[in-house]
Amino acid sequence: MTVLNKKIFSGILFLLIFLLVGCGQKTPANTPQSNSAGNTDTSLVGTWKTDCLVPRPSDQWAELHTFVFVNENTATHNRKAFFKASCAGTPDMDDANRYSYGVETGGKITFMELDQGVPLYDIYALEGNTLRFGHGFRNDAVFGGSGSIPEDRIKILNNFILYKKQ
């Protein structure tokens, strides 16, 4: 993959992620930067990590994800991206986001990105020591909702990004 192709692929991937998490929607200044649900699932508290994720080796893209949930309904997500089909060496991108979150019955979770005020209406499932969400890149394109507003909450669990409790 040429450098130009890598840049184009990275740009398309960034645009896709941006569109999927709310089209850059900002929270008004008078809106609290916390989740109205306010409930927590104590099973989420802790550090969760993925294995190296390579959606298609021919695309020369790989990612590692870490989610850290704490009791105060806050979480930090870190994504390390590699412009190759492995997670060896130094990442080409290293992003971190801070969230407040709240859970509701039925496996619903709502994240509020604290630095930009962007909400994400998502779902989650805990199965043993494995955590899945609906959001995130995957090796299929089915989300079942954009997650940008409550009425369009993501409805399909992501079977590609699997977090393991550490």
The ordered string of helix (H) and strand (E) elements is HEEEEEEEE
What is the CATH level 1 assignment?
Mainly Beta
The N- to C-terminal Cα distance equals 34 Å
Rounded to the nearest angstrom, the radius of gyration is 16 Å
Mean pLDDT: 80
Number of domains: 1
Please name the fourth-level CATH homologous superfamily: YedD-like protein
CATH architecture title: Beta Barrel
**CATH fold descriptor:** Lipocalin
Sum up the overall morphology in one term: globular
How helix-rich are the residues, as a percent range?
A: 10-25%
- How many helical elements? 1
- Beta-strand content: 25-35%
What are its keywords?
disordered N terminus, 166 residues, mainly beta, eight-stranded antiparallel barrel, single chain, 1 helix, Lipocalin
If you had to describe this structure to a student in words, what would you say it looks like?
The chain has one domain: YedD-like protein (Lipocalin), CATH 2.40.128.500. 11% of the residues lie in helices and 34% in strands. The chain has one helix and eight strands; from the N terminus they run αββββββββ. The protein has an eight-stranded antiparallel barrel. The N terminus is likely disordered.
Summarize the structure.
The chain has 166 residues and is mostly beta strands. It is 11% helix and 34% strand. The longest helix has 18 residues, at 3-20.
Secondary-structure blueprint:
Blueprint: H1 3-20, E1 46-49, E2 62-70, E3 74-82, E4 93-104, E5 108-113, E6 119-127, E7 130-133, E8 163-165
Antiparallel strand pairs: 1-2, 1-8, 2-3, 3-4, 4-5, 5-6, 6-7, 7-8
